[in-house]
Amino acid sequence: MSLRTILGKELRWSRHRVVALLFVLVLLPAAFAGASVFFQHVLPKDAPVAVVAGEDVSEEEYDVVAASFRLFSKPVEYESEAAAMRDLERESVYAVVSVPPDLDDPDVERVNMTVTIDGDVTPYREPSGALVSIVARTMNRQLDTRVVVQREVRGDERKLSSYLLPTFLMIIVLTFAFAYLPYNLAREEAVLDRLRVETSLDTVIAGKLAFFTGLLAVPLLVFHGVGVALGYDVNLLAPGAVLGYGLTFLACGAIATAVTFASGFGTTGRLFNVLVLFAFLGFSGLVYPVGFFSPLRRDIIRRVPTHYAMLTVRGSTLRDIPAAEFATWLGGVALFALAMLVPLKLSMLAYERGT
Amino acid sequence: MSPDRQALAVAGTVALLLGALGGGALYLIDESEPDPLPPYEPTANVPSDVDYVGTLNATEYRSDPAVANGTRASLGFQSRVEFYSGPPFLRSLVLSPPANANLDPTNASHVTYFGRSDSPYGARLVAANWTAEAAVDALQERRDTTFTRDDRDGYTVYRSESGPAVAVLDDGTRGGPVPRPGPHLLAIGNASAVADAVTVAADRRDPEAEADTLDGELRRRYSDTDEGYVRFAYRFRPETVPDYAFVGSAVRTVEWVGSSYTRNRTGAAGTPGGTVPTAAATTPTDDGAPDAAESPDIRVRIRITVEDADSADDVRNVLEAGRSFYLFQSSNARLKAELRETSFDVMGRTVVADYESSPGGLRVLVRGLFQNQPEAESLAPPGREEVKRRGHGGPGAGGPVTASGSAVRDPV
Predict the structure, then answer these.
(1) How far is Cα A46 from Cα A292, in angstroms, rounded to an integer?
(2) For chain B, what is the radius of gyration of the CA atoms?
């Protein structure tokens, strides 16, 4: 068989797989190329920063401090330092700035301003140093009063390797949901029809999702063991983390299963699941603070439920914050998982009618 | 007479009456109003391929000395920003003729500026009751040079050995670019720019030719500015922006800048924010005269077009930071009120900065706004004495304003 014949055969066969090829060669590249618009900066230019204005701080004092930060951050006004610190722990803000009340006092020649960051948010630590330096220089050049800007790190300065451990596990969970689960479903397509004789498809899928969620205990234990062995101060078995990972898998597993049924267990469905996986990986804010790359990406991340699952996991594993503190976010992720059961059910109904 | 005939008679009478009234009105209109003159189009004779264009309605500018002084000072600060590349307003024959010039600047009604950045290419189109000879004499006084008369495309052109030229685009007879008998339209400036203006004027007069007049993005940016007595737009040159920490890259995304000055009579009655006028309101103007109490406010609108909406946000933040610092430092109640009214809005990829002030306060407002910007890395911080000297109710810090200024590029 000549090379020309083989090439001709490939071309003819490609016609039968035109949908999958269009997906791989057109949709996927277009999605990746389009996603590039969400990455505009290499520094956290748009990360939210809490600016605490106490009762004795004037509006102009607040404005001038907020303006100094607005050039490279997104200042958010807080009235109490306690609320700001709580949001710092929850990564709703990445620094807390207290406006000095005597900034516009002509009799005061020097004021101190403190910028507090969380030592556990490793990717923000170095950029925050540059931020503080720029703010100090800007304020001292513009104001008569000498402003000493001090950076205070709350807690220990965590190493990047330790910081990334919960993140890597979240990546495993998402990959498990969007890659392995659809693969497993596709392999068992024929078996599903036989099982439907004895029980409902709902029960079969519910059982599969429950089983795979339980299987997550294995990588969880592996990660935890490795973390302990390497001396990382990370508690991956914290209830908040377990709930965060579990609910994330249920929600994403429901989406992946829905796509699998909707595509008739086809290759297109699996490829689409890969695309969704990339979307969740890119827009859950798994590693970098929101606002690190662009305000557009920040606004999208803040609307993705798995982002809050990641924050819950980090808060529970790195800072030992009780799960109850994240009840609202966990509830939101649970609601998201429940909502994803609707398209799953619809796709299963469509599949049942078609077979 | 039957009812039908009665109705017919009444309708006929009414129709006759209406016809007579209409005919009379047409006759009267035809007798009393000649053909309406097309308005003077200041940019019609501007050649294409220029980097800036600006127009000055000199009549409106001069109508109130306080407005003229405030505008001049404000334009001065605006044009001294290091990366300003717009028209060099401040030293034209209309605004500052030589002391011994034999021409009356008050006879000029419109001036149009055009040219290229960082190049001697540039000229002004002056609509004025001036003769070309008077303008040439004034230039000879200023430049110590001699002019020779020439002809180009049917237009009289005066050329000098040292560069400047004067062309008569309209000799004051109706039918030229200026649609009224009397005013001349003179092109004064760099010989090459004047020659281009003559070519455009000649092509506009020739029905067979297509004039290569101002077009494209610059014309659109100029048209986007408000109708004002000062309007200008220019192509921004990012390479002139100094190295600002963090914000330099945002400022370098600026592509076009447009600006307009309008008089707002409604703003003259009270101060923005309802505050009581204080020292700034009675600050002597450049010529030492206090502001006229009835002078209208001046509204300055600057339109800054950048690469994208995200950069527009950054540029707005830079401007807002300047305002916050100025507001914080100032102790002048009226100025503070005006600063609070200042707005910086983002519309797509354009930042629209709006400020309004009394003529006397405008220079203080604009100077502070332009000075209180983030410091360029390349500029040394101002010394304490310099800071105090700048005083504007409260001292400001250094900003992207050079000491020398860049407004004076071509003293023609």
Answers:
(1) 6
(2) 26
Does A186 lie in the same domain as A115? no
Based on the structure, what is the number of domains in chain A? 2
A1, part of any domain: no
CB contact under 8 A, A141 and B375: yes
Residue A131 has a CB neighbour count (10 Å cut-off) of 28
Strand partners, B47: B213
Decide if pLDDT at B384 tops 50.
no
Least confident among A175-184, B100-109, B268-277: B268-277
- Say yes or no for a CB contact (<8 Å) between A143 and B329: yes
Residue pair A307/A297 in contact by the 8 Å Cβ criterion: no
Highest-pLDDT range among A313-317, B76-80, B330-334: A313-317
CB contact under 8 A, A134 and B321: no
Domain assignment present for A170: yes
Residues A236 and A255 in one domain: yes
What is the nearest CA distance from A296 to chain B, expressed in angstroms?
9
Of A327, A335, A129, the C-alpha closest to A239 is A327
Domain boundary among A118, A137, A154: A154
- Residue A307 and residue A285 in contact, taking contact as beta carbons nearer than 8 Å: yes
Of the candidate ranges B33-42, B65-74, B304-313, the one whose mean pLDDT is the lowest: B33-42
Q: Span B114-120, mean pLDDT?
A: 91
Instruction: Write the pLDDT tens digit of every residue in A221-251.
Output: 999 999 999 999 999 999 999 999 999 999 9
- What are the pLDDT digits (tens) for B133-143? 888 888 887 77
Cα B305 from Cα B258, distance rounded (Å): 8
* A90: CB partners within 8 A, 6+ apart: A311, A315, A321, A325, A326
Helix A160-175 vs helix A122-142: crossing angle, to nearest 10: 120
B393 touches chain A (CB under 8 A): no
The nearest CA of chain B is from the CA of A314 a distance in Å of: 30
Q: Is the dihedral of CA B97, B296, B399, B243 positive or negative?
A: negative
In chain A, what are the helix, strand and coil shares in percent, each to the nearest 5?
A: 65, 10, 25
Query: For position A69, which CATH number holds?
Result: 3.40.1710.10
User: Residues A38-74: pLDDT tens digits?
Assistant: 776 777 778 999 999 888 888 889 999 999 898 888 9
CB of B244 within 8 Å of any CB in chain A?
Answer: no
State whether A148 and A238 are in the same domain.
no
Domain of residue A147, residue span: 48-154
Last residue of a domain, one of A124, A154, A184: A154
- How far is the C-alpha of A142 from the C-alpha of A259, rounded, in Å? 57
A142 and A167 inside one domain: no
Closest CA to B56 of B73, B75, B35: B75
The complex's ipTM works out to: 0.71
Nearest CB among B323, B327, B375 relative to A138 is that of B375
Chain A's closest residue to B396, CA to CA, is A142
CA distance A283 to B73: 51
Which residue ranges make up each domain of chain B?
Answer: 52-219, 223-389
- Chain B contacts of A141, Cβ < 8 Å? 375, 381, 397-398
- Which of A71, A77, A132 is the best substitution to test chain B (most B C-beta atoms within 10 A)? A71
Give Cα A45 distance to the centre of its chain: 18
From A63's Cα to the closest Cα of chain B, the distance in A is 6
Within-domain flag for A302? yes
Is residue A341's pLDDT more than 90? yes
Is residue A307 located within the same domain as residue A176? Answer: yes
